[in-house]
């Protein structure tokens, strides 16, 4: 049995009403963190001033956003979200994810079918409503306290 779900999908970073660029996004789900999903974006799409490392440095790491699995599921049907992550259905079988950071806001458009498939695969590992059976309070507390 698989111990995690990872899926790379194509998305569009919306730059303006008439411009967007394609990017790959790694979606991941870990049963040991059953309430969360992760979206990893290539470092070159960072909103930071200089996301590219110096020539001698290691390659820049992907930018990872972590948020509630139920938020992703809800946003496929109706606008959902508070704070830094908002998700809403968009015309043409698309879903828009809005990520807000101090450096700015990013709008990323996904094919809804890709997100539905990812959620379906995550629910095969941990069915909706059974997340509490996979929580490890001791491990979470140890991570929090360092």
Describe the secondary structure blueprint for this structure.
Elements: E1 5-14, E2 20-29, E3 36-41, E4 63-68, H1 69-75, E5 85-90, E6 94-101, E7 104-111, H2 112-125, H3 137-145
Antiparallel strand pairs: 1-2, 1-7, 2-3, 3-4, 5-6, 6-7
Based on helices, strands and strand pairing, what is the structural class?
A: alpha+beta
Flag low-confidence runs: none
The CA-CA distance between the termini, in Å, is: 30 Å
- Strand order within the widest beta sheet: 4-3-2-1-7-6-5
Structure overview:
The chain has 146 residues and is of the alpha+beta class. Helices cover 21% and strands 37% of the residues. A seven-stranded antiparallel sheet has the order 4-3-2-1-7-6-5.
List keywords for this structure.
146 residues, alpha+beta
Structure described in brief:
This protein has 146 residues and is of the alpha+beta class. It contains 3 helices and 7 strands.
């Amino acid at each position: 049995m698989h111990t995690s779900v990872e899926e790379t999908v194509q998305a569009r970073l919306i730059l303006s009403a008439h411009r967007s660029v394609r990017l790959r996004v790694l979606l991941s789900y870990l049963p040991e963190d059953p309430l969360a999903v992760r979206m990893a974006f290539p470092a070159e799409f960072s909103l930071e001033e200089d996301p590219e490392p110096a020539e001698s440095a290691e390659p820049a790491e992907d930018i990872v956003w972590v948020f509630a699995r139920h938020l992703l599921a809800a946003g496929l049907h109706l606008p959902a979200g508070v704070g830094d992550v908002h998700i809403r259905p968009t015309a043409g079988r698309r879903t828009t994810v809005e990520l807000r950071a101090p450096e700015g806001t990013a709008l990323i458009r996904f094919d809804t079918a890709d997100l539905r498939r990812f959620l379906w695969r995550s629910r095969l590992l941990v069915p909706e409503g059974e997340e509490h059976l996979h929580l490890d309070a001791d491990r979470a507390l140890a991570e929090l306290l360092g």
